[in-house]
Amino acid sequence: VGWPYVEDSAYAIDNVDDTIPFSEFNVENNVDTANPGSYTVKYGVSDKAGNPALPVVRTVNVIEPKKIILK
Asked: Are strands 37-44 and 26-29 parallel, antiparallel or unpaired?
């Protein structure tokens, strides 16, 4: 909680277009780092001919940090 979510990046490989960079991906991201919970990030991409790849989903878990108690 409280730390920004930084996208890890990804890439796709097409049998004609070779590597498709992350900058061409459509990313649906609902991660709310202010609230603990499990969130999904969905990735989609198409090749130059417009053929879509199957979407990929990543799960991001936002957790409360452990509290340190000094005695």
From this structure: antiparallel
- Tokens of residue 22, six digits: 């992350």
Write down the pTM of the prediction: 0.75
Q: Report the 10 Å Cβ neighbour count for 43.
A: 19
- Inter-residue contact 39 to 33 (CB < 8 Å): no
Q: What is the pLDDT of residues 59-71, one digit of tens each?
A: 999 998 888 888 8
Question: Alpha-carbon distance 71 to 54, whole Å?
Answer: 53
Q: How many CB atoms lie within 10 A of CB 12?
A: 19
Single-letter code of the amino acid located at 68: I
CB-CB contact of 38 with 31 (8 Å): no
Q: Other CB atoms closer than 10 Å to residue 45's CB: what's the count?
A: 21
